[in-house]
Amino acid sequence: MNHKPLLLTEAVNVLLTKSAVPATLTIEQCAAALAMSMTSFRRKLSQEETTFKLIQQKYLNELCVYALLTKHVSIDSLVVKLGYSERSTFERAFRHKFGITPSQFRDLSLVGDKKNQQNLSDIAQNMSPLPNSCLQLLQEKEQDNLDVERVVEIVASDPIFTGRVMGLASKAIYGKTPRNTQEAISRNLGINTVINMAVVYGVKDALESQVEQRVIDQSTHAFLIAPKFFQLMRKSVVGDIKFNSALTEQVLIFALLGILLLTHKNSAKHELILHSLQGINDLQSLNQHINQAMNISIYSASTLMLSLWHIDASVIKQLNHLDKVSQQKIKGSKQDELELFMLSCLYVLATRHSDFSGLEQKSQLLGLENFTEIKTLLFTQS
């Protein structure tokens, strides 16, 4: 991982910004403008773990939404910059992607006020409490009193959660179907995963009537897949990267919980967020736009919920750290970049976007092995 500033990436973004029609800017024109050969240009971008196509597509996607959120650019001017010959063609493409017209999206961005974080804090504080079995697991984990037998006992006290544990452990990706709860916990899932799943199901039940069923179901599915996804991804990492497995699993499961809070029907801008989830397939870009519209990110919305439930402070600390890395406020480590990549994958799964090309290119730049096989196993068969 290159920890130096992404100088060439920044230079390409400057060229895109200066271009009257950035959609038509070619890789050859960029290399020539920077007085570099094509071979050197591609090699140096690869060292910064990106490509010209990725930079340009990300720039155009962000330009589109940023222009609509800020009203700094008219829709007619935006049509030209994005390379469309007619406004009607752009509007059809936008509606197909986001579910509403550009004008409607701009109008939704104006709903609400500057007190969005207080609005979300009030929603979180008024959520139904987590189930007793979940609270008991969290409390005894904090006291370091848990072993498999005790976890089985607590889970058995909640018939609904028992059924969910057995259902999850019986999925093909977790191996041989367990005969009982003890096998499901000790062999298929593990204590930490069961505790984390208790929180996920608790949130799902608490928000079932407040968030669109589609969003609840798809997000929960991604959260439940996260532990197995991490196991497979860890094996595909080339190099000496030592994860804190328990912490990383929690980060991957809980980092996107904020989606549910942001799409809560009482959230001031929940309609804007719903359409943004539909139209934006890049997690970093989505976080940037949510920050512009609401001065909060998915990660910070997640930490807002987690802090109320007294989840391990190290999880909240790492989410705050990743938020800063994602916003390029601080430089990230190789482990940070891998965690953000895994979260991007889980976001695509949670939102049911079908274009994996950007993730596949990024996996190659990160030097990950067997990502295509992992994607097929978890994202198309789960």
Overall description:
- Pfam families: HDOD, HTH_18.
- InterPro entries: HDOD, Homeodomain-like_sf, HTH_AraC, Tscrpt_reg_AraC-type_HTH.
- GO terms for molecular function: DNA-binding transcription factor activity; transcription cis-regulatory region binding.
- Residues 127-325 form the HDOD domain.
- This is Transcriptional regulator, AraC family.
- With 382 residues, the protein is mainly α.
- It has two domains: 7-109, Homeodomain-like (Arc Repressor Mutant, subunit A, Orthogonal Bundle), CATH 1.10.10.60; 116-380, Orthogonal Bundle (Hypothetical protein af1432), CATH 1.10.3210.10.
- Helices cover 69% and strands 0% of the residues.
- It is built from 23 helices and no strands.
- The protein has helices spanning 7-18, 27-33, 38-47, 52-70, 75-81, 87-98, 102-109, 116-125, 132-142, 148-156, 159-169, 181-189, 191-207, 213-236, 245-254, 258-262, 270-279, 283-294, 298-308, 313-326, 334-351, 357-365, 371-380.
- The longest helix has 24 residues, at 213-236.
- It is globular, with a radius of gyration of 22 Å.
- The two termini are 31 Å apart.
- The mean pLDDT is 89.
Written as H for each helix and E for each strand, in order along the chain, the element string is: HHHHHHHHHHHHHHHHHHHHHHH
How many strands appear in the DSSP assignment? 0
The geometry reads as globular
Would you tell me which CATH topology of the largest domain applies?
Hypothetical protein af1432
The secondary-structure class comes to mainly alpha
**At the fourth CATH level, what is the homologous superfamily of the largest domain?**
Hypothetical protein af1432
The whole-angstrom Rg is 22 Å
Domain HTH araC/xylS-type: 10-108
InterPro entries: HDOD, Homeodomain-like_sf, HTH_AraC, Tscrpt_reg_AraC-type_HTH
Protein name: Transcriptional regulator, AraC family
Keywords: DNA-binding, Transcription, Transcription regulation
